[in-house]
Amino acid sequence: MDSTTPEALAGMRETASPATLPADTLKADILWHVLYSLGRDNERPDRQTVFRALALALRDRLVEKWIASQRAIYAKSSKRVYYLSLEFLPGPFLRQNLIALGLEKEARDALTELGFTLDDVAGEEWEPGLGNGGLGRLASCYLDSMAALRLPAYGYGIRYAFGIFHQLIRDGQQVERADNWLRGGQHWEFERTHYMHPVRFYGSVREWVDEQGRLRHTLEGGSTVMAMACDMFIPGYRNDYVLNMRLWAAKSSREFEFSFFNTGDYIGAVEKKIRDENISMVLYPNDEAPEGKELRLKQQFFLVSATMQDIVRRFRKKGVAWDQFPRKNVIHLNETHPAVAIPELMRLLVDEELLPWEEAWYICVRTFAYTNHTVLPEALEVWPEELFRKVLPRHLQIIYEINRRFLHDVRRQFPHDPGLLARVSLIHEGEQRFVRMSHLAIVGSFSVNGVSAHHSNIIKESIFNEFYKIFPERFNNKTNGITPRRWLRQCNPTLAWLITEHIGTEWLTDLEQLKKLEPYAESAGFQKAWMEVRLRNKQKLAEYIHAKNGITILPESLYDVHVKRFHEYKRQLLNILHVITLYNRIRRDPDAGIVPRTFIFGGKAAPGYYMAKHIIQLINAVGYTINTDPRVGDMLKVVFLQNYCVTLAERIMPATDLSEQISTAGMEASGTGNMKFALNGAITIGTHDGANIEMLEHVGDENLFLFGLLSHEVEDLRRQGYNPRTFYETDSELREVLDMISGGYFSPGDPHMFRDIVESLLNHGDRYMVLADFRSYAYRQQDAARAYLDQPGWARRSMLNTARMGFFSSDRSMGEYARDIWGVEGV
Ligand code: OX2
């Protein structure tokens, strides 16, 4: 057998240990599940049925290991980590689970005997899109690494019935369709129908004095919804350790239904049920722009309340005093979305456990840790006080008390800065009052971290500078990472195998081992093999594009890829301005010697984000014009791939030459797509932003194309009064491009179609400094093209990118969190 094939790769089972259920019964198990779990004829099962049965057979193996892992955590009485996130973006599970369990080869064999291929069967899986983008995907990479490191950890989130919408492109525009990911059945999870926690909203607070003369608070009235646990398993890589991602689904409370039924209001009872279960119905599709809707606040508290009940239940089993709580538990807040956990723990301790406030607070601030993921002002979460009072009246009182005591301390520490109190207050005062969730999270946590060195510095120096002065010891950095199991081993099996052939398999759990590839960077033979693998990956993507978009692209062309959420700060617009520039150069001189390029775009825009959607439309319009212009031929192609998601990312990463990471400096907290591309051997063109800066330090500046303003230059320019028009007036190529867009060149049927975009640049201040960075971007793109012409040079750069990405493993990130923040070790 050809040793470079994925099949051969699947054959390596270097550290595999026997499952309790033997591997060689996989086929029999599949057939068993076809008949007994799915109720289908197992003589000729169809592909979907086989997929589901295989998933169930794997779940059997996962659950055994999960029970064993839970017992081990319990036996060691370990401190537990609770990772709370409103979003998880796990991607398809099948291949990942097969790899972790060491069962890829067995699965291929079993499926072959049943007349299927693994590729076909894996294609049947619909990924759970329970996140918007980077934040949710990071949470999933982290769970994978927590499992790899055998950490005593749990992921907690919401099982939305509808995840992030499915994106279609119709007439060049984004159209949203509901993502009914559960319609195919729930083969990976266990629904704990017997296992529910009540969650209470609304109502009013009654104050009373008990026999001991204590002031007590009791919530009266309100409405109760049940949270049902749904467990999904996250296996560690070949280590027999399995973690649990517990997602809560809303169920109507029985008592209520019965009381309605008894009074004969049947339809009323059903309506109530539907209203209650709406809580976990849909993920809000806004990335970095909180929606501020009541239902969203209810989702947040729903997750928090149910999870806290779980945590307290487990803690109580230990039978130790409450002051031991922080020694036994750490609760990590992924962004501020679950920050109402802080007042919720206070409520439990003060109102229910009757601890004195000071003691309760002491426990609280030793339990919580908070990760900030953004500095965009519009993304910092705030809630109108009125809404908060309506939904969570007791929690608002508690937040006020936290704030009163906090401001009292600040006043003592900084007596000569009266304005400071208003700036750090948990409440924004003004015509309307708002609860500032980031302030709550900082005041209530012992650790506050950013997600790249650059971002963590910005936090300390600007947005949270005053908190940094108050609590300097709380602030720290934990640079993001990605899991090499999914983002190299799984998505790029042939490259993974080539690497393994040369340096062994240790890189899978110790990514720094990739350094051992460096000596091969000069070897002509290895370069050739490397580029062959890459070309094959590019051919596969070309086939996919042909099938999906009907566009023929040259696999030898430079694949220049920009995939991520659409947001103005991510500057897909800057990219398309450059595309048009190249187009104009070709129009002027078809023999200009332009390096053939394929521009690939993908990403979703929030349904209500007008400008982002408009930019998607512009890209598609430009693509149509260029792809159908006979003067251009194979020199330039523009492709928009619809419905960017984890599954699609897995196809794209291995086939990319140039990775676009071009946010306005200071705006992208970290980025993680940047890491996935580079790990697969793409070269980055990017700004001095987020983790790009650390990537530069690791891969070296010959191997990465940096350009554009630095963060402080962006700020200086803004302060001095940035005038985008000067760039328009002085740069004739840029002017031509903008005139074409506003003049209807790409929208002949409706010449005004894209005027707003040009307006935003020229007459509305160009907030994201697209024009200021245009020329340096265009120059750097020329460098990239020139570098691509030297294929051996490109191969060397590509390999060095992969070889030097070890630092960006999520195993490293999780190791740092475990050691520096959580104080836990592997079980
Ligand atoms: C994203 C950030 O925009 C991105 O830079 C980062 O890599 C990712 O989180 C993971 O840390 N919502 N999404 C993000 O921040 C918020 C808020």
Automatic annotation (TrEMBL):
It comes from Desulfovibrio psychrotolerans. The lineage of its organism: Bacteria, Pseudomonadati, Thermodesulfobacteriota, Desulfovibrionia, Desulfovibrionales. Keywords: Carbohydrate metabolism, Glycogen metabolism, Glycosyltransferase, Phosphoprotein, Pyridoxal phosphate, Transferase. Belongs to the glycogen phosphorylase family. Its EC number is 2.4.1.1. One of its GO terms (biological process) is glycogen catabolic process. It comes from the Bacteria. NCBIfam families: P_ylase (TIGR02093). The modification N6-(pyridoxal phosphate)lysine is found at residue 676. It catalyses: [(1->4)-alpha-D-glucosyl](n) + phosphate = [(1->4)-alpha-D-glucosyl](n-1) + alpha-D-glucose 1-phosphate. Its cofactor is pyridoxal 5'-phosphate. GO terms for cellular component: cytoplasm. One of its GO terms (molecular function) is pyridoxal phosphate binding. Allosteric enzyme that catalyzes the rate-limiting step in glycogen catabolism, the phosphorolytic cleavage of glycogen to produce glucose-1-phosphate, and plays a central role in maintaining cellular and organismal glucose homeostasis. This is Alpha-1,4 glucan phosphorylase. Pfam families: Phosphorylase. InterPro entries: Glycg_phsphrylas, Glyco_trans_35, Pyridoxal_P_attach_site.
